[in-house]
Specification:
2 copies of one chain form a homodimer. Chain A is α+β, with helices and mostly antiparallel strands. Chain A has 2 domains: about 150 residues, Creatine Amidinohydrolase, Chain A, domain 1 (3-Layer(aba) Sandwich), CATH 3.40.350.10; about 240 residues, Alpha-Beta Complex (Creatine Amidinohydrolase), CATH 3.90.230.10.
C-alpha cells in the first residue's frame, strides 16, 4: 500500500473518531501556496483550483485541473478523479451536494500551522461557492483531523525517520573529527554540506541554517547561519542539523568542547552544564507518554535546569518531527501565548518528538543536545543514540 | 542597494499610488506555510508569529521571534526590528496603534495566488488582535500592492531572469543533440538533470516535471513527469523546462521532429503546425504592450490557430515569470472562471510573460514553443532567442 492510500484510510478512521462527515482540502498553485496536508494526499503539486475530498463513509474524490488528473489517478488512492478545464465550481458543488455532509472540515487553525494550509482568499472562494447550495455554515476546522493524521505515524513513516536519524548521526560522527581550533563555523558547515552531498541527502530545513554551527561565547542566536567566527581553545561548539530521507526529517543537536590547552580536560562548569542537559532530556523522556500534556514534560525538564541555577531556555523543550523538522500540533512547551493550545494537546502513541534543552556556560558557549524519541503505549523511546559524553577536542 | 531594500522602497511608492497607509505581512513557520510575498521582505524563513510592516509615510518595522531578529536586522531594510519571546501581540498592537493607519493591507486575494499568502487561521488571529484596538475594520486586501511589487521588475530582477533564460537555452541546445530514436523521455530528462547539476543550477519548478518531456502522439498531458516512452521516427518531441538564477526563473519550451526515415524532411502537417505556433507567438508579442488587457493578447494568438482550423489550447497563452515560474496576477488568458479577474488586469511595463500556444498534429505529437518577453513602454521584446525553425533529428 502506498503512503497516500494508507494515510487516506487513516483519515477515514479519524473522521469516524471525531464524527466529522467529510474532510476537504482546497488548494491552487501549490508550489506558490502549499498546504502542508497536501503531501499526504497527492504526489507532487496541483496547479488550478483543486479539491481533495475524503468522506467518512463514502468515497475519496479528487477534483483537479485536467492536466493534473493523470498524476492524481496514479496514486491509486481516489475512488474518483475528476478533471476540468474552465471551472471547478460545478464539479465541486455537484459532488458536495451528493455527499450531503453535515460537517465539512477544511484546513484552517489558529493554534497549529501544520493544520492551517487554507489561505484566506481560498477560504472566501470556498465559502462563497458553498453558500450557493446553502452549505457554507457546515464548514468547520480540520485541525483535529490533520493533527491526528500527521502525528500518528505509521510504521512506514517511523522507518523513514529512523533512516534519517541514522544518516544524520553518521555525519555528526564525521564532523566531530573535522572540528578543531582555527576552523570557522562556515568551514564546518561546508564540510557537513559536502558529506550530505556525497551521501545524496537533503537538509531537513532551510539549507542556510542546516547545519547551524555555533562556537564559543556570545555567538549569534539560534536560527542564524554559520559565520566566519573561528573555533578557539576553551570554546563549546554546538551544531543543529538533520537530513531528510524519503521526505521525512531528523533534527538533532550535539555539543563538543575544545581543550583550553594541550592535555587539558573538560572544566567543571562545562561538564556540569552538559550533565544537566543530559539529565533534563532523560527526565523529560521518562515523563513523556500517552495521556500526559506537553506542558508537564516541558516543566519537568525546565525544573532540572532551574534547580541547578541555570536560566530557563527561551523556547519549547521539544516539537514533533515528520515531513517538516517542526511538525505536528502537540508541543512540549510552556504556556506562552505564541504556542496557543499546543502545550495542552494530549500526547498520543505514534508521535515523534525532539527533546532539546539548552543552557549557557558563561565565557565558554552554549551547551545544547537534541535527541529524538518515539511515543509508544506507556513510554517514549530514543530514536537517536543519545549523546552521553561531551566530546573533547584536542587543542 | 540590496533587493529587499529596493523592494521595500518600491512598496512605499506603490502604497502612495494606491493611497493605502500600511502593508502588513503576517506569517509564522514560513517553511511550512510560506507567504509568497516574504521573499521580497526577508532573507530566509521566520519561525514564530512575525509581522513585517511597511508604512507609506512612516518607518518599515519588523516584529519577529527573538531568534530571527539578527537575520532580519542584517537585511538593513528595516528602520526597527523588534524581537520577542512570549507573544507578538503587545508589540504588534503598540506599533499599529502608534502608526494609526486608516487602511491596513494584508496578503489575501481570491483572484491571485501570489497575493494570497495569509492563511485563514492567521487571518482570524490578526482580526482578533486588531479588534482589541478597534482596528479590525481597517483591514483591506493587499492584492494591488503585492501584484505591483511582483510584476514591476527592477533592472536587478530582469538581469537575473535574463541569466536564467540564457542558462536554460544552453541546456536546450545540448539536449537537442542528445535526443534520438530509442531514447526514452526519462533518459532525456536525466540528461537534462545532469546538465543542470554540472552547471550547479536549480530547476524552476517541481523537479519531477522540470524538465517535462513528451514524445510522439497520445503522450501524457502537460504537468506530468517523463515516462519510459521512447522516441521513434515520425515523433514530434517537445520539452518544457527552465532553471533558476539567484531565485529568478526561466520557463521555455522547444519542439523537435524526428525524421520518419533516413534523409526524410519535416512533413507538411508538422511544418504547418510549427509555423502556426511561431506566428501565434509573434502576433501575440506585437499585441502586448502597456494598457492592453491579457484577454486581448490571448485572443489574438488563439485566433491564429482557429483561422487554420486547429483546436484552441486548453490553457492560457501566457503567464508572468519571476521568483516562481508561474508568477504575478495579470495573465494572458481567456475569460474562464478559474482565471478570475487575471485576464482583465491591465498590462504594465516591467512585466515578464511567457507566450506558449500549443497544438496537436494527429499521429505525430504536440507542437509547442514557449518564449519569454519583457514588456516595456510601447512594446514587448523577447528575453529568449525565439525558436524560428523546427529542428530535424536524423533517424
Amino acid at each position: 500500500m502506498t503512503l497516500i492510500k494508507e494515510k487516506i484510510e487513516q483519515a477515514r478512521q479519524i473522521l469516524r473518531e471525531y464524527q466529522i462527515d467529510c474532510w476537504l482540502t482546497f488548494v491552487r498553485e501549490t508550489q506558490i501556496t502549499p498546504d502542508p496536508a497536501l503531501q499526504f494526499l497527492v504526489d507532487g503539486d496541483l496547479t488550478w483550483h483543486s479539491a481533495l475530498i475524503v468522506s467518512q463513509a463514502g468515497p475519496a474524490i479528487a477534483i483537479v485541473g485536467a492536466y493534473d488528473r493523470k498524476s492524481v489517478e496514479d496514486t491509486g488512492a481516489y475512488d474518483e478523479v475528476i478533471g476540468y478545464v474552465q471551472s471547478i465550481r460545478p464539479h465541486l458543488l455537484k459532488t458536495i451536494t451528493k455527499l450531503d455532509p453535515k460537517s465539512i472540515a477544511v484546513n484552517y487553525s489558529e493554534d497549529s500551522e501544520v493544520c492551517d494550509g487554507l489561505t484566506h482568499g481560498m477560504f472566501l472562494t470556498l465559502n462563497k461557492m458553498l453558500s450557493e447550495i446553502g452549505f457554507h455554515d457546515r464548514i468547520v476546522s480540520a485541525e483535529k483531523i490533520v493533527s491526528a493524521l500527521r502525528q500518528r505515524k505509521t510504521r512506514w513513516e517511523v522507518d523513514r525517520i529512523r533512516a534519517a536519524v541514522e544518516a544524520t548521526e553518521k555525519i555528526f560522527d564525521a564532523v566531530g573529527k573535522f572540528i578543531r581550533p582555527g576552523r570557522s563555523e562556515e568551514e564546518i558547515a561546508e564540510f557537513v554540506r559536502g558529506e550530505m552531498s556525497s551521501a545524496q541527502l537533503q537538509p531537513a530545513w532551510d539549507p542556510r541554517m542546516c547545519p547551524a554551527v555555533f562556537t564559543g561565547p556570545d555567538t549569534a542566536e539560534a536560527h542564524y547561519g554559520p559565520t566566519s567566527r573561528r573555533v578557539e581553545p576553551g570554546h563549546v561548539v554546538s551544531m543543529d542539523f538533520g537530513v531528510k530521507v524519503d521526505g521525512y526529517c531528523a533534527d538533532l543537536q550535539r555539543s563538543w568542547y575544545v581543550a583550553e590547552k594541550k592535555g587539558a580536560s573538560v572544566p567543571s562548569d562545562v561538564q556540569a552544564g552538559f550533565d544537566t542537559i543530559v539529565e533534563a532530556i532523560e527526565t523529560a523522556r521518562r515523563c513523556l507518554k500517552p495521556g500526559v500534556k506537553g506542558i508537564e514534560v516541558d516543566r519537568a525538564a525546565r525544573r532540572v535546569l532551574a534547580d541547578r541555577g541555570y536560566d530557563e531556555f527561551p523556547h519549547a523543550l521539544g516539537h514533533q518531527v515528520g515531513r517538516f523538522a517542526h511538525d505536528g500540533s502537540a508541543l512540549l512547551g510552556p504556556e506562552w501565548e505564541k504556542y496557543g493550545n499546543k502545550p495542552f494537546e494530549p500526547i498520543e502513541a505514534g508521535m515523534v518528538f525532539t527533546l532539546e534543552p539548552r543552557l549557557t556556560v558563561p565565557g565558554k558557549g552554549i551547551v545544547t543536545v537534541e535527541e529524538m524519541v518515539l511515543v509508544s503505549e506507556g513510554s517514549a523511546d530514543y530514536l537517536s543514540s543519545p549523546q552521553q559524553k561531551l566530546v573533547l577536542i584536542e587543542s
